[in-house]
Amino acid sequence: MRKYFKKLGFFALSASLLIASGQAAAQAKKVTISQAFQSMLYLPLYVAINENFFKDQGLDVSKETAGSPTAALSAVLSGSSQFSIHGPEWTAIAASKGANVGIIANVANGAAVWIATAPDFKFDGIKSIKGEKVVTGMMPTTSTSLFLKLLKENGMNDKTDVDMIQVQIGSEPAPFLGGQAKVAVLYEPGLDLVAAKGMKVVLGFPKTYGAYAFSSVTAQNNVDPDLAQRVVNGLELALRFMTKNPTQTIAIAKKEFPTLDPVIVESAVRRMVAENVYPPSVQTTPGALKVAMDTQIALGNLKVQPDYTKFVVQTYVKKALALP
Fold first, then answer.
1. What predicted TM-score, i.e. pTM, was given to this entire model?
2. Which residue, 4, 136, 157, 267, is most buried by CB atoms nearer than 10 A?
3. Can you say how many angstroms the Cα of residue 48 is from the centroid of all Cα atoms in its chain?
4. How many domains does the chain have?
């Protein structure tokens, strides 16, 4: 009889746990995050999903790929997603035109763009590429924006001094390796893909610019504050995890990019970590934002710096930084 009651108690406890689990799942808030691309830049997002940091915050996150930064931002403006992830410059441009948007979390804090050349190309500085064909991403994209700014700063004209071959973002390695140009402007993992084929990495924008607000999470200013806080918390915990667990972080990157050579993925992640592309926290500093927006001002895409105090929402960041 005693055994019977023990069994009965066990089953009652199991049933209670199942009910509680079901209630927790039912209470999970659904969130859609629209990403511009599947990108190494957004690795903190993938870590937060894979390591259940969002789930632990009571979120059921759906990741959607829009195909471009402007398309991802449009998803937020239209209300089809609550959050988007891309360069903060597009959010600033939209805000300057009256859109009710701001950035709530930092995701990449280094100008993650590099210039590579063919192994036989003599590179003594950016003026070495005068008269050359250059493969780069199709605008609007930050890699090409940075390249154009660099040309301008060195007295060069992108129309007359170089012959730019703009291609779909992510497809830059193919024409470069195919010999259509001896110079290419690249994101990761494209950079390490061509480096593995013998191409030379000759210039890195992360070292050139230092802290640079490169990828951020955008939301409308009237977004549900509870949802926003949970998203920012999840990303903060993901960034802390990445700092302490490089091996697991690389494993997640390999899972998220299954068609790429695992060796290339690992090299790309290690390079981005070493060059401080991933931030230590979700905080976007005034200096990092200013450097990023200066690029857009120099190109004529933005007239003035956004008001940091209004554009970068600190409410969620401060609470996330206070997490144990």
1. 0.87
2. 136
3. 13
4. 2
